[in-house]
Amino acid sequence: MNFFKALISWKLWLSIILGGALLIGLWFYAFKFLDNYTKHGVSVEVPDLSTLNINEAIQKLEELDLRYEVDSVKFTEDYPPYAILDFYPLQGSKVKPGRRIFIKSNPSTWRPVELPDLIDKSSRLAITQLHLRGFVLGDTIYVEDPARDAVLGVMFNGDTIQAGKLLPKGARVDLVLGRGFKMDMPVPQVEGLTLQEAKAILKDKFFDIGQIYYLGGTRDTIGTKVVYQDPPPNDNYDEGLPVSLWLSKKPTSQLRKELDSLNLVYRRKLDEKDSLFYNSIESSRTIDIKDLPEEIRNAIKYDQNTNEQMRPKEEPKAPAATGPKKIDTTGISID
Q1: Residues 229, 246: contact at Cβ < 8 Å?
Q2: In this protein, which residues make up the domain named PASTA (predicted)?
């Protein structure tokens, strides 16, 4: 009885009606919302972007309510800058509004490349490293330096640049190289100068400093000047070779015998017609060797030993016969 009363109760039917209305409202709202959210039945055709540049393509996609993502990492010289190389979805594809279009475009130039450290490396190794990084070798500029073909500097657009500088790939790079030593260059005049001045001049002319000797009882460089040099001034000499110097506190006028003896050792010619005419060649022949500095005595002895070794040896003569003498029997009768 109570069950039938409940069935005809208005409260029950009101609850059923309200529940049904709520379900119908939720169903209608849900499907309508999903249609609007997913844009059901609405599509956009992907346009042809291959003939456009990146700016034109972006403008076209925005007009169609399409999003985009651009990849422009790799540069290729086969296409102009900002050209569209590829895109996805393809032309003519039906997509929803707001769909993301992936575009691959050509950048304006190569991605910047870091310049390697080339200083003090050989030109061949430096050129190889430049080519591996995608750089182009420009001019090779040679400067005065004993390191032949060693890289002393790198230039770009006329400016010196350091390792680690970011440059466009394919950039034209100039190398500053040492020209190395030259042959048969005149020896500079350093006689009459201090040791420091002589060293500076010889270094500036790419000659090395040879042995340092002292004349006139001097044993240090204080107050001394160069009174003699070998090779002599203006003599042809290869750069990088040593130039020996003799120092003394005395003027050259008081070192006449020593200088003449040095001329005999270091500036004597093989042919008498080509010999140098010294101030007093006769006096140099009468010098007592014991009165000369040790380095000159050693040089003279070395020179004499060299001449003796170069002198052709005489062939030994056959020894005379030592047998019994023959007796002349002419005119002797046996009878």
Answers
A1: yes
A2: 41-107, 184-249
Domain ranges of the chain: 44-105, 112-178, 185-309
Can you say how many angstroms the Cα of residue 105 is from the centroid of all Cα atoms in its chain? 37
> Nearest-CA neighbor of 113 among 154, 75, 169, 163?
169
CA R_g for the chain: 51
pLDDT for the residue 312: 47
How far is Cα 298 from Cα 333, in angstroms, rounded to an integer?
73
In order of 18, 26, 42, 96, the CA distances from 31 in angstroms are 20, 9, 15, 18
What is d(CA 278, CA 78) in angstroms, rounded to the nearest whole number? 77
Domain spanning 185-309, CATH class: alpha beta
CATH fold label, 112-178: Trypsin Inhibitor V; Chain A (3.30.10)
Cβ contacts of residue 263 below 8 Å, gap of 6+? 276, 278, 284
d(CA 139, CA 159): 13
Select from 277, 197, 264, 262 the least CA-distant residue to 228.
262
What is the pTM (predicted TM-score) of this model? Answer: 0.43
Q: What CA dihedral angle connects 137, 141, 146 and 150, to 10 degrees?
A: -10
Q: Would you state the structure tokens that stand for residue 258, as one six-digit string?
A: 């020593």
